[in-house]
# Entry
Amino acid sequence: MSSQNLDKIYDKISSVVPEIEWKFHAPIIDKINKLKKEKDAVILAHNYQTPEIYHGVSDISADSLALALEAAKTKSRIIVLCGVHFMAETAKLMNPSKKVLIPDMQAGCSLAESITGADVRMLKEKYPGVPVVSYVNTSAEVKAETDICCTSANAVKVVESLGTSKVIFLPDHYLANYVQKNTKVKIISWQGTCMVHEKFTGKEVEDIKKENPGIEVIAHPECPPDVISASDFAGSTSSMVKYVKENQPKKVLLVTECTMSDNVQVENPNVQFIKPCNLCPHMKKITLNKIYDCLKNETNEIKIGHNIAEMARKSVLRMAEIGR
Ligand code: 13P
Ligand code: SF4
# Structure
């Protein structure tokens, strides 16, 4: 990568990455971008990745639905998934012939950890014949017990696609609540929560609105119901990005993992972002150095047992057919 291209990246992110940090990031960004070509790799990054990853090395930065769909399409030999473990597993399910690497195997998710395959079997026994819709934020083992997956971008559409009067919707209790408000299908939910979004409160949002008259509030549907009611719009991380791009609010509050505000801010310089900061410790496990190491040594490869993979793949492919 030429020094001109590196300068272009820094020009873009200089408002959110201090110059002193950039001195450390620039050489490794350069190395990763060269290595990507040598290794025939694509880097897919979630919207919560830090600006130096999101704008510096990622080929596609998006929400979990788009990452899954991009993984299915890629012709590259290797996919490096900069995000959490369930996203890398989903990429592998979508495109099993590719080598899928995750820079840190410990990058988990409180929602994915809230439920096991045995829990889903227990729910199916309790509600015989009721289809299971699993949020993509689940392990392959849970997906294998699932009729169809969804993300926050298509949850209502997926639930309604089944044509039943009831569904088991797991594991996010708040997303289930949000879906219930938007459909007549009866939702049977689980008690999982996102450790980042559950921290926001309606009172906090109302206080920010009072201090910032005219501010537009956009929330992720993993937030508690009082936060969603205090917001102007709720949607997946990519729908939040789209909302800001299309509406260009003067001032905005993105009620979600706070790194995303930095990523969106650099592309919308005329929008002022108010940033209460809740970070996802799992997403933040991914660093430039770990990306370089895993790609160089082709380590941290995602492997899923044959039987689980075959069953889990059906539920993600069914979701992909429904789309956004
Ligand atoms: P999105 O699918 O909206 O990107 O959300 C994924 C996630 O983990 C949010 O916490
Ligand atoms: Fe999981 Fe929440 Fe982190 Fe998203 S923000 S990866 S739902 S813990």
The pocket of 1,3-dihydroxyacetonephosphate (ligand 1) is lined by residues 47, 63-65, 137, 151-152, 194, 220, 222, 236-237 (CB under 6 Å). The longest helix spans residues 19-39.
